[in-house]
Structures are given as C-alpha cells and as structure tokens.
Amino acid sequence: MKKLLPWILTIAFAAWVVSSLVPRKESGFHTQDFARLPVLHEGRLQPWDSVCRNTLLQLRGKQAFSFEEHDASGKTTLRTNMTAVQWALEAMFKPALADTRPVFRIDHPDLKGLLGVPIEEKNVSWNQVIPKFSELHSLATNAATIKPQLRSPYDVAVLRLYSAGNLFLQLKNTLQAEQSADFIGELLDYLQNLDAGRTAVINRQAGKDYDEAAFKKLAGHIEMFDRIQKLSLPLVVPPSDPNDKDEHWKNLGDQLIGAIRGDHLHESVTFYAAMGAGYRSGDTAKFNKAVADYTALLDKTYPKAETKGAREFAFNAFEPFYKASAIYVAAFILGLAFWVTASPWTRRAAFSLVGLAFIIHTGGLIFRMVLEGRPPVTNLYSSAIFIGWGACILGMVLERFYKDGVGVVVSSAIGFVTLVIAHNLALGGDTMIMLRAVLDTNIWLATHVVVVTLGYASTFVAGFLALIFVFRGFFTAGLGDVARKNLSRMVYAILCFATLFSFVGTVLGGIWADQSWGRFWGWDPKENGALMIVLWNAMILHARWGGMVKERGIMNLAIAGNIVTAWSWFGTNMLGIGLHAYGFTDSGFKWLMVFNASQLLFIGVGLLPLRLWASYQKARPAAGKGERTPATSGVA
Amino acid sequence: MLKRFFKPLSSLRLTVALLFIGLVLVFFGTLNQASEGLYSAQNRYFRSFFIWVGPAGAGWKVPVFPAGYLVGGLLLVNLVAAHTARFKLSWKKSGIFLTHIGVILLLVGQLATDLLSTESSLGLMEGETKNYSEDFHANELALIDTSDPKEDTVVAIPESSLKEKKDIQNPALPFTVRVKEYWPNALIVRPMAEGAIVPATTAGELKGLGVFPQPEAKTMDERSLPAAVVELLEGSKSFGTWLVSTRADLSDPIVVDGKTWKISFRFARYYKDFQMTLLKATHEKYVGTDIPKNFASRVRVQMAGSPEARETVIYMNNPLRYGGYTFFQYQMGADEMARQRMNGLGSSTFQVVKNPSWLTPYLACILVGLGLLVQFMIHLVGFIMKRSGKPHRTLSRPTPAGASAQ
Known about the structure:
Distance between the termini of chain B: 33 Å
Radius of gyration of chain B: 29 Å
Oligomer: heterodimer
Shape of chain A: elongated
Number of strands of chain A: 6
Strand order of the largest sheet of chain A: 1-2
Number of helices of chain A: 26
Radius of gyration of chain A: 30 Å
Largest sheet of chain B: 10 strands, antiparallel
C-alpha cells in the first residue's frame, strides 16, 4: 500500500488539475463565452475576462466579487458570489443595480468618516460614494499634486478610491451610456435618423431651413455617445480591416459618432447592443445568441483576436500558479514528514508532487510567454514566477543526487513562497501590461533577465539550504554527519552556480544597456543590486578557498546572501519611493524588513556555540573538539 | 624579495576584504543616490579614491571610506599579484585562470571607459542640421569670430575657468575677458523682482536684467544653468560688460579691430567633422494608451567636404555607429502635444557616445562565463565520477571524502 501512496497522491492532484480544464456548460447567461470575447485595452488584445478581473482588482483587491445580504437583526440571509465578468456585465447593462453593490474596498478610518459609513464596514457601494464624489474629487486633485513619497496614508486612500470610482464610471459607460434606458432602441433610432439629421446639420450651418426635429434628435444621441467616447474603458470595436497591423480598435462612442461621417459600422456594435438588450430583459437566449454569433463572426473575420481572447481566458480560468502553489504545499509537508518519520514513501511522494507542481508551473510560464510573445521575465511579477521556477529545478536536481528530502523541501518551499509573492504583486493590476519602448525585446535584454533571475534563484536556494542547516542543526537532532556534509556540498555547489549566473547576468545587463543607450555601467540601483549579489557570492567562495570560514561560517554567509538578494530584487525598487511610501510598497517594504529580520535571527542562531545545538548534543562526546568540518582544501 | 613584496598584496584575505568593502560601498552609493542625486553620488562614491566627509559649511573634509577607484584598483592589483605570486597554470585551474583574466579585462576596460569615453547629447528639430553635440554637464563661454562668412572661429573658455573670476587672455583673442561675477545656477529675472541681483551691464540682450541664484541641480534629469558677468577689455579700454547665461543662448555681437565677435555662454560643444540633419521624428504609442511603443528618427549624415550623404533610421535599441561615435535614440518630442508646442515640428535628442573600449565587457563576459563554467564543470564531473565510484583521472586527489565537491 505504502508503495502505491506516492502514485495515488500524485494522480489525485493531477486529476484535480485536469478537472478544471474541462469546460463546464453554463446555464442561464453564457457569461464565460462573453468573457472570452477580445477587446483592446492598455494597448494589448485581451479578453473581457482580463479587463473585468483587473478592474475589480483596482476596486476590490480581488478577482471575484461576493457580498452578503442581512436581515434586520444583522443575520446573513443571502450570500452571492459573482465572477468578475458577471459583476462587470451587471455594471455595464444594469448600472443602477450595480450602484448598490458594495464593491469598493476602503480601509482608512478617515475615509470611512468622510463617506459617513460605519467604521466596521470594509466595502461600500457606489451609492455610498456618490454623495461625496465631488468632495473626493477636490481632495484627490490636491493629493495628486503632492510628491508620491510625501503623501499621507489618507492621501493615498483618497486617490485610490477616486481612481476606483472613475474606473467604475468608465466601465458603466463602455457598452452603452449609463443613463440609457433602451440602448438598442436608441441605436436603431439614431441610425434611422442619421441621413435626415446629417442633412439638417448641413442646412443649419448653411443658414438654410432645416428639419429641427431631426437635428435635435441627432444632437441628443451625439450627447449620449459622446459620454461613451470620453469614458469607455476598453476599445470594443475591432478594426474594420482585420489585417490592420497597428490594431486600430475604437471605442463604441468613436464608432457611433464616426457613423455621421459615413464610417462603416462594425457588426460588433449590433451584437453588443443585442447582448445588452438580452441581459437587461433577462432574455438569456437573446444574450447567448448574440455572444455566439459575434464569436463566430470574429472567428471568421479576425481569428487572431478571437484566439487571443479565448487563450487568455483559458489561462485566467486555469490559474496554473495557484494550483502549483497548492501542490507545493502538499509536497513541502511530505518532505518535512520524511525528515521526521524517515519513511521512504513520503520522500517519493514529495518528489513526484514537486514534479507535478513543476510541470504546471512550467506550463503557466510558457503559456504566459506565448500570450505575451515575450521572454519569461518582463516585470517584478514574472520575475517572482521565474525565480520560483528556477529554484524548483535546482531543488529537484539536488534531490536526484542526494535523495535526502532536502531538495524537495527547497523546491516546494521556494516555489510556494515565490508564487505567493507573485500573487500579491498581481494585486497591482494587469501583469501582462505592455512594455515601454526602451524595454522592448532585444536578445541581450531577454538573455540578461533570464540569466540574472536564475542568479537570484540560485542565491536564494543556497540561502535556503543554509537555513535548513541551521534549523535542523539547532532545533532538531536530525542533522547527522552525513546530512551536514551533504548540505555543505550542496550550498557550495549552488553558490558556484549562483556566482556564474549572477555574474554573467549582470554583465549581460550592462551589454544590453550599452546596446540601448551606450553606457555599459550607469550605477543604476538595479544594476548595483545585481552587482552586490555577485560581490557577495564571490566573497563567500574566496573566503572558503582561503580557509577563512568553515562549514557554519559559509552557512551564515549564505543566509546573509538572502538579504542581499532580497534587497536587489525588491529593495532597489523601493528606493525612489523612499521610506515614507505607503500603499502596496509600504506593505512590500514592511515584508522586506520582516524577511531581513528573520534572516538575521537565523544568522544569530547560527552563531550560537555548538554546545547549544540539538544535533551536536549527542554527537559532542565523540567529536572531541569544537567544530568538525570536512577538510576544506582550497581550489585557489 | 619580490615574493615578500607580492605576498600581502596577493592574499585571499585582501580579496575577501575588498569584495566586502565593495559591497558596502555599492550599497551606500545606491542608497544615497536618492538624496544626493545620481550624478553627484556616482562621483563621490565610485569615481574617486576616498569618500570625503566634513561638517556642512566647513572648508575641510576627511576621507572616511575607500571609494570606487581605490577598491577597484586594489582588486586589480590583488588579482595580478596573486597570479604572479601564487598561481601556476594547470588544466585543473584553467577555469579560474580564464575567469580572472576576464575580471581583469573588465576592470581595466571600465577604467579605460571612465578615462576615455565621452557622452554628450545632440538635440535636433525636424529639418535642423548640426555638426556638434553638447555636454550633459559642462558649459563654456564661447567667443566667436564671425568675420569669415564660410567658417566661424571659436575660442571656448571652460566654465571651471570662470569660477575663479579672473582675467582670461588667449592669443587668439584681441581682448582680455574679465570675469566679474559667476553663479553656478541662476535664473534670469526682471530687475524689479524680489531678491534679484542686478549687475551693472552695458551691452548685450540681457542688459539691465537681474539674476536670481539657485541651488545647484542634484538629480540626473535636471542641470545647473550658470550665469556670469563678463567685461571685455583691451588694456584699460572696455568694450562693454555683458550678463551671460546658459538659459539664454544669445550671441551678442561686438566689433573689435574690424572683426565681428559674438559672445555666448552655452553648453560645452564637441564639433564633429560631419553633420547630421533630422528628417523625421516618429513617436508611436500603443493604441489607446500613453505608453510609448517606439521612438524613431530618420536622419541624414554627411561628412564635411564630401558630397556623399547617408540616410538612416535611429530607433530604440538600434543606434547608429558613425565616424567613431554611436548615436542612441535618447529623448523624443514628436507626439501631438510636443508638435503643437513647436509649430508642428517634432524634435529628437540623441545620446552621442564615444567609447574606444566598448568591446571589453563583451570579451570579459565571455571569458568569465566560460571560465566559471569550465571550473564548475570540472568539479561537477569529478563529483559525479566519485559518486559513481569511478575515479576521474585528472581529478582524483588524496583528499578526504568531504572535499570532493570543491
């Protein structure tokens, strides 16, 4: 039975992963089919799904929406869960209802005071915000003039709520004007009146007699479409020429007002209008047919966009990094169990689970690369994903060689933590945002980021191995002679690779800079951070070769390497913002400090005399003298 | 004898100490960029031998920590000494050898870059032609003899000479330049403005205007714009007193001995033997956003005296290498708003770099990467051989088991 356990566990997890890939038929409105439809937003083709998720993130800090209804006694009577798209559909087609949903997250007590909501309430609706929106506007205008590093938490909270409010307004005016009672009717009316209205305008300008009714009707419509033109969030109307390289999408307002000039009216307009009509009247068949017909049209005329939307939707729904992180946790627990129980099946199970998580992790990484058409590392978010990925490989290689559970614990722990960091970084908004021109892909940049990120990953692996050394040695009696020597060798080997990757990665960065603006080295904070990792790793290696540090010394230096790497990875990004920064970077800064403190604590423990170490207590009489280390004859 | 001298310099302890000091230096050098400004922090921490610190306002400073040149220089000496005194080339150490040669090349190359390379900028409006680039920091007082219709003769006095506020003479000048006042960064203001210093001036387009001194610029994206008051004299005969400022690139004419001279305080210029014309500047954005997608400049370059002109496009990550210089797309003012400000004309600025040792990092990267790879592979192969029980011919050593992974 125990022989089969690793297989059973792995298959169970694999089944869980695969099950989410099977598409589920939606009853009622086919909101998932809507979610696949492509739009152009922030300069890139993406499905509605991504737009809605990222919008909700800005408002709520979450990618899904749920709310509770209470009766008079405060008891929860109903809990409603909505996907981001379901919420957005409501906002776009039934704005009055969406106005009542508590979708804005506010934390600052003074801001709650301003809105007059009870202090214990975390989420407020647009209806609660709107009475104070003009006040919020002037507060935000004021706060925006203050330099980011000098803003108070209240300023930041005001700015955030204000921009969230604007985002909500934009969303509501994307597929119809917010105040529109019957958009499809208005649209038909507008199109019918178009010729008469146009003639009226021309005659009026020429000072001739004109059809006043037609003129007024046209003016009324234009006023409404003007609102869409100015506010609309994504660009929803595809280019009339599907081979248009520059992807000149339009928003609905542009398209409708353009119709006066005789612009070709794209079919998407009527499809979206039909979706709206169906959604508002609860006519699921009408909504679903419009979605299906529009999808079929795009598939025929603009397959590139249709595919991109469907693929990114699949990626969002699959959530590979969430799934990988859950499996990493299971593997981590099994790895620890192996150290405690020493039963071989736990190690084998941990190893195959890490393998499974790694496959999913890799799949997600490649999927993202394909979606973006970019190298794996383009921003802080993707660097976290990639560091976890690199660390996972290194851990698995170590496990293959040593078979002592250390490798799987390293893989699963670093894999999990980096994915959690990535998840938190993703709260900032779209993680596939377009890159500024200077960061446009170039072979040097692509190899630089990959190699230097592997340098980060391997330095973290070395540091984590050293943490295992200190933890197991000091707190448990489990660090025997063999385990200790193995750990020493692993740390040394990984440090060698860390030196290689960080050096080559750093120099490649310089070469990229030389290619891009003619300066190999500009002492830029990020460059300096990478250089510090190189210096630190080189220092440990030389100290070892010179016999200046022995086993424990190297371990402590490797732990300190975690601090150096964390600084290079995150600290340098916080420099410009300074210590007064709040918001996400504030909590980022806090976590960086917590991390550094914990590493210092471990170094402190690592420095304690060996007689206090649990693992050395029983070994001490045999050891005879102080510290026992493997011979460290230097290479240099 | 030689050995005794080399021994301390070649020690691994020195290496470790220098690497650590280097790390500390880089850390504080980075941290203080935020408060001191990138340029000044770089000079203080990296482009000097010591970091000097003194109380604010006091005239003295003491060195408190080794700075970039010292640490880098000592590392170089340490490496060279170690190879002279200790290292013997062997197959087993070939990787380390390569690595160290690469590091030496990198350090020497960067020193050469620091000493020999120049960076300047060349800003052009569409249709404009220039045969010079301008320094990012330095300024000069230019005295220009414009009598020859074909060619101007320029005598450029560097800003550093103005700071001393002395009389300046030059055989090419028929007059003495007396620097009466100098401000490292100053606004030009109306004479009635509060706090304005109004120097006594007799000539020039800034005659009668006031000066409002400013603190010197700190950050990378701003620069100090100095002003000065100069008098031109022949013996005791004065031709006039000018207020000059790099804010106002005016060339005020004066006639001396039948020759027309212009005086201009301007960004220091580097003349080239070719000229460049900006034909078209393009600023592309991603649809529906303000995120720049591409900056591109169509330019024409032409060697002096040569009828042959060459047209090319400079864009992001695609510089032009011409006449020993490299032109990088640097700034761009060609979007709708910039064009509106400039009568529909776009503008483009290039970073102009001359760096004879630009190739050294490429070589260094290859050498070090290869060296480290070779070295670690030698160990890895030895380690795997040992584990699988087969002794590796070149690597088996009479060391304890624990040392096998080294």
